[in-house]
Write a structure and sequence with these properties.
Layout (H helix, E strand, L loop, with lengths): L4 E3 L2 E4 L4 E6 L9 E7 L6 E6 L5 E3 L7 E6 L4 E6 L8 E8 L17 E6 L1
Parallel strand pairs: 2-10
Antiparallel strand pairs: 1-3, 3-8, 4-5, 4-9, 5-6, 7-8, 9-10
């Protein structure tokens, strides 16, 4: 069981979509929650979305309706679908595990990926 690896970032035009992936061997078997964060250059890290072990989701208010988080248990992967991207969405996106329920394993503590860069041009 390894660490978290994000992929799917890239350079797109405003209005286009991207789907980010966070592959985390051990995520499913340890019953973790998972968060997506982003950090733009020169700014503080911003929380984006969260998916619970029971598939309930939460989003930053400013991103509701454009971003969607989901997971594939068989692949130990969490996705972030981003639609109608704006230049303001340009940032490094990363995922992190969350220890959020009584069935979660200690593996869920403190796992974070290196991130994948998303650049949106107008």
């Amino acid at each position: 069981q390894g660490q978290l690896v994000e992929s799917g970032g890239g350079s797109v035009q405003a209005g286009e979509s991207l789907r980010l992936s966070c592959t985390a061997p051990g995520f499913t078997s340890n019953n973790c929650g998972m968060d997506w964060y982003r950090q733009a250059a020169g700014k503080e890290r911003e929380w984006v979305a969260y998916i619970r072990v029971d598939d309930r989701t939460e989003y930053a208010d400013s991103l509701k309706g454009r971003f969607s988080i989901s997971k594939d248990r068989a692949k130990d992967t969490v996705y972030l679908q981003m639609n109608n991207l704006e230049p303001e969405d340009t940032a490094m996106y990363s995922c992190a595990t969350r220890f959020d329920n009584e069935h979660a394993g200690a593996w869920c503590f403190g796992k974070r990926g290196q991130g994948t860069q998303v650049t949106v041009s107008s």
